[in-house]
């Protein structure tokens, strides 16, 4: 049998769409920027190149201090959520698995809620959400190992239990501090607001490491798809691969959620769509899911900040509007696809 490889046509086409969407994200917004000027500013970043006809000082400030950090953050978060979702679906062999399966969302939401209701600086929200997400997954693993070892079913059930508990604590905190409800729910619904490049630089190491680890295990995920026992006979340590993939996906997801809030459906919709269009091998699904997830979230954010301009929708509302109908399609086709 010939090895499954990522088609150069698929890769080139998806990257071309990604670049086009990123340029639109940089140019379109309440303060519209000329696309030619944006392109000129980008080309001028190349050492030794200096083209005329770029943006004026005010437009350049909008581009590099507001618009570019937001687009880059959208690219990173979308790619991370999509590739993490694909990783979860691979190790759990379930097309409905998503990056929030093991308590990341509930833990991050609780951490962010505590940071907001305590009246601390807004700079504390992201670290608190990251710490909450990591602790939520740690609690899931601890509970799962006490009741069922390392089996996937026990981990999933433990994640449900931990998520329910953390969500109840978050609800109690919200009721005790109703004056912060608007800010808390604004974070929960997801947003890509930035104050420069700080958020991007904060999460970049975590997302980069997580993405590299997941891509490095894409061949092993193909082997796991035949089942853990069969993978063991082929010399693949299924339990170790599952642990590494889940930890990498969780770390990257916690980092992404800490700066973007809870943006749903990206980790379900994008990998499944890639699987339907390009093939089911994880050597194809993981890299294309990262590119498609980045594209999808930038488009969703572009819609969120233009459809009710000068107001702005939470980006999580836009992804849910697209993802909910697609989720129904996944439910109907899950048995046939898997």
TrEMBL record:
GO cellular component, one term: plasma membrane
InterPro entries for this protein: ABC_BtuC-like, ABC_transptr_permease_BtuC
Keyword Chloroplast among record annotations: no
Record key words, sorted: Cell membrane, Membrane, Transmembrane, Transmembrane helix, Transport
Domain of life: Bacteria
Predominant location: membrane
Transmembrane stretches, start-end: 71-88, 100-117, 123-143, 155-173, 243-270, 282-307, 313-331
GO molecular function: transmembrane transporter activity
Membrane topology: Multi-pass membrane protein
Family under the similarity heading: Belongs to the binding-protein-dependent transport system permease family. FecCD subfamily.
Protein name: ABC transporter permease
Protein species of origin: Jiangella anatolica
């Amino acid at each position: 049998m010939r090895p499954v490889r990522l088609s150069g046509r698929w890769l080139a086409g998806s990257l071309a769409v990604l670049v086009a969407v990123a340029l639109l994200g940089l140019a379109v917004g309440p303060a519209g920027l000329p696309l030619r000027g944006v392109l000129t500013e980008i080309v001028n970043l190349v050492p030794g190149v200096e083209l005329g006809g770029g943006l004026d000082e005010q437009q350049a400030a909008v581009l590099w201090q507001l618009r570019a950090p937001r687009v880059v953050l959208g690219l990173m978060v979308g790619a991370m959520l999509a590739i993490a979702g694909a990783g979860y679906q691979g190790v759990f062999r379930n097309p409905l698995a998503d990056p929030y399966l093991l308590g990341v969302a509930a833990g991050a939401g609780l951490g962010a809620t505590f940071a907001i209701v305590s009246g601390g600086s807004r700079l504390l929200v992201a670290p608190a959400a990251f710490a909450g997400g990591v602790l939520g997954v740690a609690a899931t693993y601890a509970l799962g190992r006490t009741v069922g070892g390392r089996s996937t079913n026990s981990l999933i059930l433990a994640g449900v239990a931990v998520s329910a508990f953390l969500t109840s604590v978050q609800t109690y905190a919200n009721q005790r501090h109703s004056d912060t409800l608007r800010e808390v729910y604004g974070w929960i619904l997801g947003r890509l607001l930035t104050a420069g490049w700080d958020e991007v630089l904060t999460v970049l190491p975590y997302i980069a490491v997580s993405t590299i680890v997941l891509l490095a295990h894409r061949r092993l995920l193909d082997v796991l798809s035949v089942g853990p026992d069969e993978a063991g006979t082929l010399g693949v340590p299924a339990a170790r691969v599952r642990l590494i993939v889940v930890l990498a996906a969780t770390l990257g997801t916690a980092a992404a959620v800490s700066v973007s809030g809870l943006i749903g459906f990206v980790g379900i919709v994008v990998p499944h769509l890639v699987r339907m269009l390009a093939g089911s091998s994880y050597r194809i699904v993981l890299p294309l899911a990262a590119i498609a997830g980045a594209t999808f979230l930038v488009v969703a954010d572009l819609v969120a900040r233009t459809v009710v301009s000068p107001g702005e929708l939470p980006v999580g509302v836009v992804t849910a509007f697209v993802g909910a109908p697609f989720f129904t399609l996944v439910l109907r086709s899950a048995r046939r696809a898997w």
